[in-house]
Amino acid sequence: MKKVSIITVIVLGIVIWGCSDVKREPSRVYMPDMAYSRAYETYASTANLDSLGIQYTRQPVPGTIKRGELFPFAYAQDKAGDSTNYVLSKQVPNPIDSMQAVHMKEAERLYLVNCGICHGTKLDGNGPLYNAGNGPYAAAPKNLVTLDMPDGQMFYSITYGKGQMGPYGPQLSTTQRWMIINYIRAKQAEAKGGGATSTTAKAGDSTATIKAPADSTVKK
Question: Is the N or the C terminus of the chain less surrounded, counting Cβ atoms within 10 Å?
């Protein structure tokens, strides 16, 4: 009984001592910037980041591509007043030489979602925003059926925007952009009364395939 009492007194003493207002020297923090990071919320303003010592531009590191991205585009957007890369982009061929019917259907969907509102479901430049001059935008979009532009230059325009058309690089992957171009080429061939060209396939061609190079960025 005596031992139990002694143990009880010792335990109570430890509890009381542990709960007492005893000032202690705090330990030193290794790498305090990581222990007490300056949090940045997604979509928050970046206006005052420099004053916090945070170097963040939301832009990828130059010369890098995201993991899993196929068909990277070699030309960056030209600076204002320059058209060097826009001209050079003419030399870039479409890396997707043909598509199966299911891929062409997906390309059509991507076109209608992203392009149809301006260029129209028939690719004639008469989408709802123009509506034969009666829509909210007075400038007529390009007629894609008659558009004579190399694939690479069309890809540049979709990626970075052209004229009053905004950039669609953030919304569409490189593969999706090339697929849309193939869809446009197929529609141009249909309008001319011919079949699919050697680099495109009609929606009904189930024998064509998308030939994508191996992704060297994916870890094995």
Answer: C
Mean per-residue pLDDT pooled into runs of 10, the chain (220 residues): 76 68 66 69 67 67 76 91 96 94 97 96 94 90 95 97 91 94 96 59 41 45
CA distance 7 to 45: 59
Q: Is residue 2 part of a domain?
A: no
pTM for the model: 0.64
- The answer to whether 197 and 185 are in contact (CB under 8 A) is yes
Residue 142 lies in a domain: yes
Q: Where are the alpha helices (DSSP H) in 72-203?
A: 84-88, 101-114, 116-119, 151-160, 174-191
- CATH (domain of 140): 1.10.760.10
Tell how far CA 58 is from the center of its chain: 12
Coil, strand or helix at 54: coil
- Taking CA atoms, 60 is separated from 24, 63, 73, 195, in Å, by 46, 8, 14, 41
CA 72 – CA 174 distance, rounded (Å): 7
Number of domains the chain contains: 1
- CB neighbours of 35 closer than 8 A, spacing ≥ 6? 29
